[in-house]
Amino acid sequence: MKVQDIMTSDVQCCGPDTNLAAAAKMMWDSDCGALPVLNVQGQVMGMITDRDICMAAATKNKPASDIIVWETVSGKAHSCLMSDDVRTALDIMKREKVRRLPVVDEDGVLQGIIAMNDFVLLAGEAKGGKAPAISYEDVVRTMKVISAHRALAGI
Fold this sequence. Notes:
Blueprint: H1 20-30, E1 34-38, E2 44-49, H2 50-59, E3 80-81, H3 86-96, E4 100-104, E5 110-115, H4 116-122, H5 136-147
Parallel strand pairs: 3-4
Antiparallel strand pairs: 1-2, 4-5
């Protein structure tokens, strides 16, 4: 099964100069917890999450409307291709410890997003000797890696 078969195509996104209040409103209106950050060519530059917004607003001592997305995101974007196998996307999520991946074309232009939620809904049991595209165990193993606590530095 390919990523394009289960990804969400209608994705809200923002630019690097979008302020955090506007990004938060987009997330609220779209019932999502992350937005891909795109350059003017539509290529993914990074991701911003609702947690990123909360932490920036709490630590920068400025209103969210005075903080832009680019001040907050790491600028490191992990993505997968529409033509990738769903297991490849799951492996990337595990390796990079992310719950969502922008789905891009060969030019890096956003085409959709795939999230752990998509894998939870896809997961199944072997039936009639046939393995599912993704098993429950695959999903739990990935979530376990993603959810592992970071080592506390200096402790």
